[in-house]
Structures are given as C-alpha cells and as structure tokens.
User: What shape does this take?
Amino acid sequence: MIQILKRNVVLFLLLAPAPAFADTLDSGDTAWVLVSTALVLFMTIPGLSLFYAGLVRSKNVLSVLMQCFSITCLASLIWLFFGYSLSFGDGGSMNAFIGGTSNFLLMDVTREALSGTIPETVFVMFQLTFAIITPALVIGAFAERIKFSAMMLFTLFWMLLVYFPICHQVWGGGWLAEMGLLDFAGGTVVHMTAGVGALVAALVLGSRNGFGKINMSPHNLTMSVTGAGMLWVGWFGFNAGSAVAASADAGMAMLVTHISAATASLTWMFLEWMKSGKPSVLGIVTGMVAGLGSITPASGFVGPIGALVIGIFAGAICFTVTNFMKRTLKVDDSLDVFPVHGIGGALGTVLLAVFIADSFGGAGYSEGMTLSSQLKVQLTGVIFVAVWTAVATFISLKLASIFTSTRVSGEAEEKGLDVTEHEEKGYIL
Amino acid sequence: MKMVVAVIQPYMLDNIREALSDAGVHGMTAMDVKGFGRQKGHTEVYRSSEYVVYFLPKVKLEIAVSDDQVEQVVKVISTTANTGKIGDGKIFVLPLEQATRIRTGEKGEEAL
Assistant: This one.
C-alpha cells in the first residue's frame, strides 16, 4: 500500500509540469549548450584556422594559425577580466550602449549561479566562443602583411570598442535589443562586425605587395576544405546552440542552418561555373560560408523555405560582391571577409524581417510588429552596427599604431611572415 | 658522346620513359624545374582574383647517349611529347666529354 502510494507520488512529481515561478537548472538545456560551446570553439580551433591557413601562401601558413590560436587565448582572458561584464552586465546609466564592470574577473559568477535554465558558467563559456571567433574572422583582412604584435594590440582595442559594445547592445540588454532588433546567433554581432572591421582594416593597411599581379593563390585547398567541413558542423553549435535550450527552436535552427549552407554552396558553385567555365572547390566552400553567415541571424526565426531563399540570395549576392570588391574596387580584403561575412550577415539580418512571417513557416512576428516595422528595425540595426564598427575599427587601428607599426616591411612581406615574425617554417619537406 | 637535355610537360614523363626504353635507352635523370618559353604571360584566376603566371612546372630530362643514338633519341622524345600545343617543350644536345660508371670504373661509351 505504502509502496503504491510512494510510486504514485514519484510518478506524479515526474509527470507534473515544473513550477513556472523559478528557473531551475534543466539538464537537457545545459547538456546541449555545453556541447554547443565545444562545437563553436572547434569552429575557431581548428575550423577557421585551417580554412584561412590553406588560403594564404605557404610562407604565411603558420602566421595565420598563430593568429587564430593567440586570439583564442587573448580573447578568453579579456572575456574573463572584463569582456563578459561589459557585454552582459548592467551598465547603469550607460546600459543602452555598454554593460558595467562589476563582474570583473567573473566574481559574480558562482558555481551555482544560473542564467535561465543553464549554469551561468556555461553561458559565459558559450558566449566566450563567439567573442573568440569574431576577432579571428577579422584576420582574413590583413593576412600576409600584419605585424603579430600589432594584431594582438588591435584585437584588444577592437574587442573593447566594437565587440563588447555591439554584443551588449544587441544581446546584453542594450538599446538595439530594446528596439526589438532580432539577431538570433550573431548576424550583426559577429558577422557584420567582423566583415566591416575587416574592410576598414584592409583599406587602412593597404593591399599586399604585388596584389593583382603576382600569384597569390591558396597554397593548400585541402586544408581549407577540411576547415570548411569543420565550420559547417560547428555552426550547428553556433546557431542551434543560440537557442540556449534543447528546444524546438534549436531543432529548427539546425535544420535551417543546414539548408542555407547547402543552398548557398550550390548557388555559388553554379554561378562560378557559368562565369568561369569550371566549378571550383574554393567557390563551393566560400558559398557555404556565405550561406551560413546569412542564416545566422535568422536561424531561430525562419523556416526551411526561408532558409532556401536566404541561401540563394547569400550565394548570389556574396558571389557578386566578392567579384566586385576584388576586380572592380581592387580592395585587398585578402580572405574576402567583408563580402562573405559582412554582406552575408547584413543580408540575413534584413531578410529575417520577411521570412519570420508564419506564412513562410517562420516563428511569426513579435507582439505588435509587422513586416514593415520589423524591416525598419532590422535595417536600422544593420546600418548602426556598420557605422559604429567602421569608426571604432579605425580608431582601434590608430591606437595600435601608437605602439608599433602595423604592417611588416616590404622585405619581410616578401620573405613571409612565418620566418620573419615567428622564425619558423610551416613545411620542412 | 652527347648529353640530350629535354624540357617537357610533367605529365609526359612516363610516356617518354617507356618510349625511350623501347628504343634501347635505359638510363636517364629527371628533375622538377620551372620554366617558360612562348607559354609565358598567361592569366589565371582564383576567386575572381587575377594574376599573371610566368613560370610553369616542367620536367627536365638528361640522357647521356652515344653519338649514333642522338638522332633516334631526339626523334623519340619529339614524337612522344608532341601535342601540337604551346608548352610542349624543347630538346637540346650538348657535347659530353667524359663518362664514368662509379661501381666498375668503366669509362667512355662503356659507361653509358
């Protein structure tokens, strides 16, 4: 009798809905975000590292790997000291633009502290992986000519002046969030900041010597394609993980992320096939990145049809802008960060306003929003982030140049950064 | 004795080796080189970035032959490596003063 009673009580407690008045730790959510964190870190080391490293000339392969690795470490420490606090803390009177410094050294993040249904430590880590990959993306702009010390300094200033403020404004309770800007996983925070930052850096530093004349083709596309595969898989953590829950949103985010990647890859591949006569492997993986970057802001809000359309637009538009930047404008954004991430991220952020509609299988407009009002909000966000990033990136470069020259000498550039900046050789054959 | 030096397309190497073997030539040295003749100045494109390529990968063959073999060796290489396109390569014949087989010490045509 007692046994039956006990069993029924246990069954009732298991099946009854959890009390809604307090967030408790959900192990499913926590497990998923833990995994996503690992996936997103994997995107930087070694996903992006390999992708980028394969694209440069062999004499610079180590410099790229070194930059990605050192940024991973540097960004982590900056995050610990004040990054997380500035991004997600309460900034008091400045909270519209930036968080506060009270959570310096993560002193308020205890073992038991929760952020929603997951431990705050997990949230800190998950967001850290985003703060790592964003400056790592930027290095594509000044690859093969930046001084290592200058890059470290630039990254420090850039995170302070661009990443933490924008992250706070979009995700940390700042004014863009208040305005209703929707950015599920970082179309503005990650891709636009990286893309615009890269463009400004490429313009300020100037083109590589011999750009447009000598052969600067990728030295190891096998490495790049390997990295690309890691990026695609890791992106499931980036987008689906941004649901910060093992939920329906996560499931849909993973699905749409995948569809956009596949669609944009083929779109770019076919466009290049028509334009140059052959489908290239470099083209298909670049298309993939464009598709992934574009779907990022929209991943929690759109459905499969939206992802398909976004993928097509991403492939086509990013392909066109890449050609335009390189051939017409002749800007040496060495690894095409701006046309792929900058334009891609902006594109997805704007198209989100259309495909969030439930008639397209999206999550539906927020309370009181319509296509035109959401579109306005998204455009405002995109323009603001672009302008802030451009100005703040310029300032960051100037600040870094107070301490050291930013570009290596012509002779060093000719010899290669591996031997001149690191005294190492990538390949000893 | 003569040294026949041929600069050829890398993918032709095996065909030439086989053809020379059929013609009774069983020794040669091959090396990877870079070069251009009339094939210079062509433009290549990657991810819409254009650049001019000068040096192209080639293979250089060195074959030491006796004077009476020269004509045939040159003909065999010419015929085998000919595709009719710019970039097929060139053959040079240089005088060869001396030859020694290291293992046995044989000299002259005996060493070839």
Observations:
- The two ends of chain B are 9 Å apart (CA to CA).
